Amino acid sequence: MNELEKVALVTGGGRGIGRAISLELAKSGYYVIVNYSRSKEEAEKVVDEIKQAGGNATPFKAPVQDFEACKEMADYVLENFKRIDVLVNNAGITRDQLFVRMKEDDFDDVININLKGVYNCTKAFSKAMLKQKSGCIINMASVSGVVGNPGQSNYSASKAGVIGFTKSLARELGSRGIRVNAVAPGFIDTEMTEGFSEELKNEIVNETCLGRFGAPEEVAEAVGFLANSANYITGQVINVDGGMAM
């Protein structure tokens, strides 16, 4: 690693939006740690793609819902790279179901990964950022956390929690030079939306001003902006949703 190179970690960085974010930050000159839990092959492919493009990256396995695993990941990063400049809390899952049919495990799993995972990773890395007196934390929220969504009471609750966490942490850490923001994607063309029926896709498209699904790269560009150019922006939620949640 070049001593002048900045370091970024992206949770769930091997697939979908996370993959696009990993590539975007690498393109911006960051050494990217691509976190994964089960998608080892996808994470390694992203790392290879980054290296082939002239960047630097490495994969690291750590389920974000496991605090000790997150701490071990932070220890690895700080021991080997001596710093952490950007933390992107992107890892997330859905377990969609109408509330009256939703199982307790489906609620708990979504909260533990989508919300507690943000706490775990931020807790693990924040001490280093406080010591540096610099850093950028970007939490992936969702349009579902802004306006709610039928069949996603668990997911909407987790993402609304991420938004509240973001705003509170921005107030706590701003005086130490650490910016904390959230990005709230709308419906993005990823594996999560592949199973939607054409009828549902048409309904969603009709709710947007731009009349289409978003692309992962468009979300990644917003993350890149917050990481690289938004030095006076903190505590904000940037909607990347085609005008759905206005």
Overall number of strands? 7
Give the count of structural domains: 1
At the fourth level of CATH, the homologous superfamily is NAD(P)-binding Rossmann-like Domain
Rg calculated over all Cα atoms? 17 Å
Beta strand %: 15-25%
* Level-2 CATH architecture: 3-Layer(aba) Sandwich
Q: Give the structural class.
A: alpha/beta
Calculate the terminal CA-CA distance, rounded to whole Å: 43 Å
CATH classification, class level: Alpha Beta
Helix content: 40-55%
Unreliable spans: none
> What is the average of the pLDDT values?
95
Strand order of the largest sheet: 3-2-1-4-5-6-7
Treating each run of at least 4 consecutive H or I residues as one helix, how many helices? 9
CATH fold title: Rossmann fold
The helix/strand order is EHEHEHEHEHHEHHHE
Largest sheet, if any?
7 strands, parallel
3D shape: globular
Describe this structure in words.
The protein is α/β, with parallel strands linked by helices. The chain has one domain: NAD(P)-binding Rossmann-like Domain (Rossmann fold), CATH 3.40.50. It has nine helices and seven strands, in the order βαβαβαβαβααβαααβ. It has helices at residues 16-27, 40-52, 67-81, 104-132, 143-147, 153-173, 191-194, 198-207, 216-228, and strands at 6-10, 30-36, 56-61, 86-89, 135-140, 178-185, 237-240. A seven-stranded parallel beta sheet has the order 3-2-1-4-5-6-7, with helices on both faces. Helix 1 packs across helix 9 and helix 3 (67-81) runs parallel beside helix 4. It is globular and about 50 Å long. The model has no long low-confidence stretch (mean pLDDT 95).
